[in-house]
Design a protein that fits this description.
Blueprint (H helix, E strand, L loop, with lengths): L3 H12 L5 H13 L1 H20 L6 H10 L5
Helix pairs in contact: 1-2, 1-3, 2-3
């Protein structure tokens, strides 16, 4: 099972459905067990819904990368 740091690294690819089946299972097992990461996942998921509703055009990949780089690491 992955730890919180691994889960953090997999969060965006998980939300984008870019993980392998093995990675997806690993992430889901961690989310099932860790309330902190589950809360972060729900926040990220809600934020994506909000952003989708707030704009009419897709987010440019460059902006997506910049936003991901600005996230605060767990440690």
């Amino acid at each position: 099972m992955c730890d919180c740091i691994d889960c953090e690294k997999m969060m965006q690819p998980y939300l984008d459905r870019e993980l392998t089946e093995e990675q997806r299972v690993e992430a889901e097992e961690h989310l099932d067990e860790c309330s902190y990461c589950r809360k972060r996942y729900r926040f990220e998921e809600t934020l994506r819904v909000y952003v989708r509703q707030a704009v009419d055009e897709p987010m440019p990949p460059e902006l997506k990368q910049r936003l991901a780089a600005m996230r605060t690491p767990l440690i």
